[in-house]
Design goal:
The structure holds two protein chains of two kinds.
Chain A lengths: L3 E4 L2 E4 L5 E7 L12 E6 L6 E5 L3 E2 L7 E6 L2 E6 L8 E7 L6 E2 L3 E5 L1
Parallel strand pairs in A: 2-11
Antiparallel strand pairs in A: 1-3, 3-8, 4-5, 4-9, 5-6, 7-8, 9-10, 9-11
Chain B lengths: L2 E5 L2 E3 L5 E8 L8 E6 L5 E7 L6 E3 L7 E6 L4 E6 L8 E7 L10 E5 L2
Parallel strand pairs in B: 2-10
Antiparallel strand pairs in B: 1-3, 3-8, 4-5, 4-9, 5-6, 7-8, 9-10
Classes of the chains: A mainly beta, B mainly beta.
Chain lengths: 112, 115
């Protein structure tokens, strides 16, 4: 199975400041069609996960542009340009290239 | 608006069975692959099972293979998960998730396996 490793696991941030989460995979996530199926999900307290980013850097509809994704191959990053109070929650990366689908451990974002 | 509504969770004894259901709306269910993903209390996300639109491709996580069965009824826009021989470690919120590259999630249904 592809192991997804996130860091840090806990991220205290100041409102209005940037935040960055790293996600590394144990194998390349480039699929045979040339796409890289790496997604980011946000799970607010008490809610279901919500997809923010798909195929590394594509924002889902309704996702604020302060969220951005980047990376390639096995190394990926989610950035929040200016953290807002509503961004508190746990963020997961997930690979959609290989079976079984696997998730990172999650990164808990909280306000300092 | 895409909606996925799970039901069927509850308290069951070890070794028991439970059948989860997910009713979909807001999209053409018959053209989308579906998944079940679970989350143990206070833990991360674990993919459980996948089924393609025609039910010709079905996949399971090793942790549930031989005990769980995924199925769908496109006429009823519904997804199911039959869970047998349940164990304490199956205790989790079970989410119905759309698409082979997961996008939309339901609100989840809690399964508790305990004596």
């Amino acid at each position: 199975d592809v192991v997804m490793t996130q860091s840090p696991l806990s991220l205290p941030v100041t409102l209005g400041q940037p935040a960055s989460i790293s996600c590394r995979s144990s194998q390349s996530l480039v699929y045979s069609d040339g796409n890289t199926y790496l997604s980011w999900f946000q799970q607010r307290p008490g809610q279901s996960p919500r997809r923010l980013i798909y195929k590394v850097s594509n924002r889902d509809s309704g996702v604020p542009d302060r969220f951005s994704g980047s990376g390639s191959g096995t190394d990926f990053t989610l950035k929040i340009s200016r953290v807002e109070a509503e961004d508190v929650g746990v963020y997961y990366c997930m690979q959609g290239t290989h079976w079984p689908r696997t998730f990172g451990q999650g990164t808990k974002v909280e306000i300092k | 608006e895409v909606q996925l509504v799970e039901s069927g969770g509850g308290l069951v004894q070890p070794g028991g069975s439970l059948r989860l259901s997910c009713v979909a709306s807001g999209f053409t269910f018959s053209t989308y692959s579906m998944n079940w993903v679970r989350q143990a209390p206070g833990k991360g996300l674990e993919w459980v099972s996948y089924i393609n639109p025609s039910s010709s491709t079905i996949l399971y996580a090793d942790s549930v293979k031989g005990r769980f069965t995924i199925s769908r009824d496109n006429g009823k826009s519904s997804l199911y998960l039959q869970m047998n021989s349940l164990r304490a470690e199956d205790t989790a919120i079970y989410y119905c998730v759309r698409n082979w590259n997961p996008d939309y999630w339901g609100q989840g249904t809690l399964v508790t396996v305990s004596s």
